[in-house]
């Protein structure tokens, strides 16, 4: 009897605990949508982070409301997910979600102090994506079948991505009125709807014009996508996944063993510029980075290149060689 009673008590306790947190989660969700105007994906991600934490509390039988959560509870939870094998990147993601939740609770006077305020974020290793050589990019371009209907489009996409260092989101939203091909520039709408003017190379201009004249301008377009540059066969804008598949397919046909994605093209663009001696601030402007520190991850230059740059430009090195 005691065993069955104990099991029922545990079940009721879990149900009570889940119901206790539900109003806070609903309020948090509404706050993220209405006050923060975040996307569905971001809101769902934050709620999953809170759900992970409440699952941990249930597992540890800590049926505590948000007002009773302490720094120690947060730290024990983070230790627990780390021991389960969660990567530092994923841990940082969860911490971000919990911080937002408890900041919401403070703003709504559900709690007096934020238990996440003194939580340290795990140090992340900056992993650099693979970089392609110019020869490898050219080999990928050679794999494009120009006899197919989408051949001119795919060639224009590849040339534009490498020439301008575009994010995949910037490629799929590129509009025809934003092309200033005679002047050698395109207007790019980046993160946060921030605009920038980016130079576009001669080869890319040539391929975009060919695509416009022979494919794009004759297409019937879906309502709302009339100005979009790159379209699928149905006249709709391409998805990010479609760009990813195009790049992956070309890399496979070229026999490249590297982990290649649309971002690899952007990374290669920036790396080739810096290795060629481009000013980092200019690269920052072309990539649309708010902070120069973000651009610096693209400068994984070998030591010999850095040494040659110092010898060529730094006064102390020049004086040494003059002696």
Order of helices and strands: HHHHHHHEEEHHHHHHH
Strand order of the largest sheet: 1-2-3
The strand count comes to 3
CATH class of the largest domain: Mainly Alpha
Q: Per the principal axes of the C-alpha atoms, what is the gross shape?
A: elongated
CATH topology (level 3) name of the largest domain = hpI Integrase, Chain A
Query: Which architecture name of the largest domain does CATH use?
Result: Orthogonal Bundle
Average pLDDT, to the nearest integer?
Answer: 83
Q: Which class of secondary structure composition applies to the elements?
A: mainly alpha
> Which superfamily, in CATH terms, is the homologous superfamily of the largest domain?
Intergrase catalytic core
Work out the helix count.
14
Cα gyration radius (Å): 26 Å
Low-confidence stretches: 8-12, 319-323
Note the gap between the termini.
95 Å
Number of structural domains: 2
Helix fraction by DSSP (H/I, runs of at least 4)? 55-70%
Largest sheet: 3 strands, antiparallel
Residue share in β-strands:
under 5%
Could you explain the architecture of this structure?
The protein is mostly helical and 323 residues long. It has two domains: 2-107, DNA polymerase, domain 1 (Orthogonal Bundle); 134-309, Intergrase catalytic core (hpI Integrase, Chain A), CATH 1.10.443. The chain is built from 14 helices and three strands. The chain has helices at 2-34, 40-59, 71-83, 88-107, 134-142, 151-164, 168-172, 202-214, 240-253, 262-275, 280-287, 292-295, 303-313, 315-322; strands spanning 179-180, 185-189, 195-199. It has a three-stranded antiparallel sheet with strand order 1-2-3, with no helix packed on it. A hairpin with a 5-residue loop joins strand 2 and strand 3 (195-199). The longest helix is centred in the N-terminal third of the chain and has 33 residues, at 2-34. The protein is elongated and about 65 Å long. The N and C termini lie far apart (95 Å). Mean pLDDT is 83; it is low at 8-12 and 319-323.
